[in-house]
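Structure, all six chains, one model.
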Amino acid sequence: MGERIDGRIDGRGSGALRKVRLYRSVLRHPQGSALIEMGHTVVLVSATIEEQIPPWLRGQGKGWVTAEYDMLPGSVSGRSQRGKPSGRSQEIQRLIGRALRASIDLAKLGERRIVVDCDVLDADGGTRTASITAGYVALREAVRTLLESGAIAEDPMTTSISAVSVGMVDGEILLDLCYEEDSRADVDMNVVATGAGDLVEVQGTGEGNTFSLKDSQSMLKLALRGMDRLRRAQERCLESPAAGPRRLI
Amino acid sequence: MGERIDGRIDGRGSGALRKVRLYRSVLRHPQGSALIEMGHTVVLVSATIEEQIPPWLRGQGKGWVTAEYDMLPGSVSGRSQRGKPSGRSQEIQRLIGRALRASIDLAKLGERRIVVDCDVLDADGGTRTASITAGYVALREAVRTLLESGAIAEDPMTTSISAVSVGMVDGEILLDLCYEEDSRADVDMNVVATGAGDLVEVQGTGEGNTFSLKDSQSMLKLALRGMDRLRRAQERCLESPAAGPRRLI
Amino acid sequence: MGERIDGRIDGRGSGALRKVRLYRSVLRHPQGSALIEMGHTVVLVSATIEEQIPPWLRGQGKGWVTAEYDMLPGSVSGRSQRGKPSGRSQEIQRLIGRALRASIDLAKLGERRIVVDCDVLDADGGTRTASITAGYVALREAVRTLLESGAIAEDPMTTSISAVSVGMVDGEILLDLCYEEDSRADVDMNVVATGAGDLVEVQGTGEGNTFSLKDSQSMLKLALRGMDRLRRAQERCLESPAAGPRRLI
Amino acid sequence: MGERIDGRIDGRGSGALRKVRLYRSVLRHPQGSALIEMGHTVVLVSATIEEQIPPWLRGQGKGWVTAEYDMLPGSVSGRSQRGKPSGRSQEIQRLIGRALRASIDLAKLGERRIVVDCDVLDADGGTRTASITAGYVALREAVRTLLESGAIAEDPMTTSISAVSVGMVDGEILLDLCYEEDSRADVDMNVVATGAGDLVEVQGTGEGNTFSLKDSQSMLKLALRGMDRLRRAQERCLESPAAGPRRLI
Amino acid sequence: MGERIDGRIDGRGSGALRKVRLYRSVLRHPQGSALIEMGHTVVLVSATIEEQIPPWLRGQGKGWVTAEYDMLPGSVSGRSQRGKPSGRSQEIQRLIGRALRASIDLAKLGERRIVVDCDVLDADGGTRTASITAGYVALREAVRTLLESGAIAEDPMTTSISAVSVGMVDGEILLDLCYEEDSRADVDMNVVATGAGDLVEVQGTGEGNTFSLKDSQSMLKLALRGMDRLRRAQERCLESPAAGPRRLI
Amino acid sequence: MGERIDGRIDGRGSGALRKVRLYRSVLRHPQGSALIEMGHTVVLVSATIEEQIPPWLRGQGKGWVTAEYDMLPGSVSGRSQRGKPSGRSQEIQRLIGRALRASIDLAKLGERRIVVDCDVLDADGGTRTASITAGYVALREAVRTLLESGAIAEDPMTTSISAVSVGMVDGEILLDLCYEEDSRADVDMNVVATGAGDLVEVQGTGEGNTFSLKDSQSMLKLALRGMDRLRRAQERCLESPAAGPRRLI
């Protein structure tokens, strides 16, 4: 697939990601935190360790990772309602939780729970996939504190995880859709993969349109290429010094 | 892919559907209704026409199709709680709604809403895909009443829609997983397609496992073969006389 | 009271029940289940044993029987809202619970709870009384499994229970009102009794009308005659082989 | 039935009411209000006129009367939870509403709603029947203001309404049970009747016990005698001058 | 500050309280109760002892005092909605709780909770301050029962607490505003103080207006003078015999 | 009052503010937005214009300003629960709304509503006062867009508004308490004032302690001095160029 320069709103090629900025340790209280910017989309993520697990998991010697996702009222045009999670939010937070659990051996985590909170500060499409990519960084930080404190002896994390969207717009397959592209897309697919390039989750939908087996294959290939670049951004972020709360302003 | 007889709980081949029974017109009040049995899974579906559409759609001359999904308390082992839809239920009913809207030209439906209620009477895996397959039949019936009454002049339905699950269990790709197979699956994928074999929605997840591009292709192919058989069951059901409420007992 | 043939919508005599069909063991998961059809009214009932009792009963060596009642959205004309139980539903499920508890010695049940779920699939009047009549069959089945497994040594059930409605329409006392008769009734009375013909609960209301002591006596007498026939239907059902899930379609 | 002096907690005869005090116009804001004391049970009732009716009644030229019932936290031993109405409360307020609507020709009320709020200040059994008896007085007051202001030309009230409980305790039929008697009762019956002695509602329940046709007849007769005295108390209250807010302390 | 006679709705001087009536032991069930009338404002307060404390306080050997506040639907013009506490109610009940806790040494109370329920029967301004003034009396009564039963050995109450409102209306500082004055006030201040005249809480607000440091000083001084008189009313009430439930009517 | 250097956690004098950073236009969608940092406390504020007002204000030609306040789960130690606003949150958002309405002539705003959302990203005490100080900047920005678009002709804003906390810790009066100081404070007071130094709201509370008239005067004076500096920070922020979304990372 050639990366055409023309046609995309911000001049990107069809297979190009938006500008990615990724910071870690941006909050004082949670054990892990990250801030991600993908183009105009900004998501703040925290990972908090709780030394209690849900009742249904007790006594199995296993831990749990769960996620919550919400949009700040000012993150969208026309203000979103504050309060109970919508069906959309619940669907997204279940996806984020499943994706992050694929990066960790829950038995090695011990009987504790890590809650990953993803709050969208500014929304321009791709907020769920950005949440997963930054969520991995925050989770990695939280697990580090467990290792450093000696609470767990062996690193439970088995792989990195990232996510990206891909879609078909006017017959062309595009990577990392912004809001306007997403609104016009015939098919929209969110893909989660490990750092090794193995698929973890595929959610493709063509509301009002259909797509072929071959289309699905092409979209997945492009998404995997994009996630390879996200993996490198995660590695750079985790190797660089903590951003500190100062990065929030 | 060879259809192995051994290995499946009920002796099916890996590419075989469970026994499908599909009835229509099983309720007296709704304009459309259907009952589907896929193995032990039983779902009762009704389609009710409401001459009002949600506020955000008013004045556009378009209709809407929405779905609700719930499980009766006695449909599962240990009784499910009655009441507010869980995150899982909301995710499923959003999927059913999107799938069914792919079968219909909403502009031709006029400013009305069809609500498709899917209630699981007995659950043995595949309840969301069974809901879509039977939901199409109930929706088709409801639309027929609009055509017969002259409320709409032109048939808004553009295709049939069905759905099926496919998964990887012990390295083998299996069609139409029952509950026990689903519990042991490494990868679980729900696929929705049109009667013409075009993909409408793909949701594949490997909680605790990963899958390759090639695996995804093989799973989609097997799912499409299964849905071809479901399409024929839908056609037979819609051509046969109404079951009538008597069919419920 | 003569049983007049003329006058009733379906040609019944004033003291005749609608056609009753009653099946048991219609679901795979719950310990007890039943399906009842009284004319067009269809109710699916399950009885699930929970080895925990409410906190306020703990430590007394007694069990508890409780009921939940809901209508499927497609069971009525115009679709009923799904979700939280209405005031009407709560009133009905409290009635069903009280009625079924009258059939059982809670001390002999041991510290466990049986939840009887009544879901109306199709509604044509008399859904609360049909729920009680079928609820007894499901409860009886669930208790049998406790006896057969040796969980309890002595049968805690002391009597059978059934229920029926009776009402005054245009000055005439009618048994087992269908929806249309109920809508036109001057007085509506729901009566619960034991198999021995003793009264357990009487709820008579004349919204917009009144009735005399003598009317109340006549209505109760007719109701008791109707419940005698329901008792026989319950006995036949419990003696016949299990319907099996197949009966649902 | 002889009125035995011995045996009742407060020395009453079996057919005697507790001491009844009934005041009207005890609040400044609502159009009607009443305070009733039956023994230790104290209920404060207000009747507020709203010039809007529920959507489902609009355009029919008819009014509506509805009731709400709650217990103040301090009205019972151990404090009742404040907040959402329980199933019991909802059942009671539906009963109060039905009972009061039997006293009024809704067509003559015009398109307005009267809300009757019943708040139990101190509870010693019989709160629902006391609410109905005082509710009639408050409703009567509210309707008077409509007549006096000329909002309606013709008196819509067709009868007075009162209510009382009756029960079987240790084989004896007792009128107007206090809490302790109610706790020990084998059968508990709440009866609503018009001033002319016609029955409006009968709710008899024998949790854990049964009763005969003859018992039901005896209980109804005793209840009607009690309500005849309540009718006179209502008449005296409505003829006497307004108590004024001063009566509250 | 001169106390002008003219200008106030009821002819009071600017520094005069409304007529105060305060009764105790007005309910049978709670360990403490009080009824206060300040002009037309009537609040019924109960104090219930619970031998359990909130989880976050367990094991510290300390008790807790909390308050709930609500208005009966008929206490205001146009009827207030029953149900969940509004933001205003929550704010008020938090204030009442803080104020009452200032009167008691929680360590000496032992691990138990006293819940003070304040229900407004008739509202004419100043309901939150009246609730605090009567709340102290009910709390004092409940603590007395603990002392009398020997449940606690040492009196935990360290001071009395009362509260009053003060405001600026048309440039003049007025004590104890009734509803109509409150509606027209430029500044409204609620003040809580101990019997010794020390401030416990000050909440002054000038919606749509502002006030100076000097104004705040003058308002606080007048409030302290008013509370000195409330302290005396509390003392008289606590020394006089119990009103008994009879006082409610 | 001398500004002592010793004694405060961060070496500030008793009358010194923490380091204040204030940015505007930090979000793309809302008409106004601001980010404030006071020491470690970080609050993101947006102001959204809605061309509808609440029903109770319609037809009066006036506008409305309302506020919502919430803390992100990761803003505090131990993670705060997401979801419905707590009593504390509701109290705070009512305070913010009242404070901001004091800065604006609602009649000149026209029939529209401005919603000011305050979300705490990192909490170290003083979040409600920081919300008010930044809320004024966001509100000012939103009103500017109305003036620039010609939607309103005359500037409705009549003054600037800021807020700060002051308290007594170990007998010393301190300005702008951080979380640790706030936890140890004997008296805590939140003060809102206009740019001209007039008081708008005073909320002083001494949970477990009391304070004198003289203390209240000293605290108010110190708070007014602090707010004079906040006013200057607001002026500088509003005169400087927009920070742009880039400032968020």
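Helices of chain C lie at 87-101, 106-109, 127-149, 179-184, 213-239.
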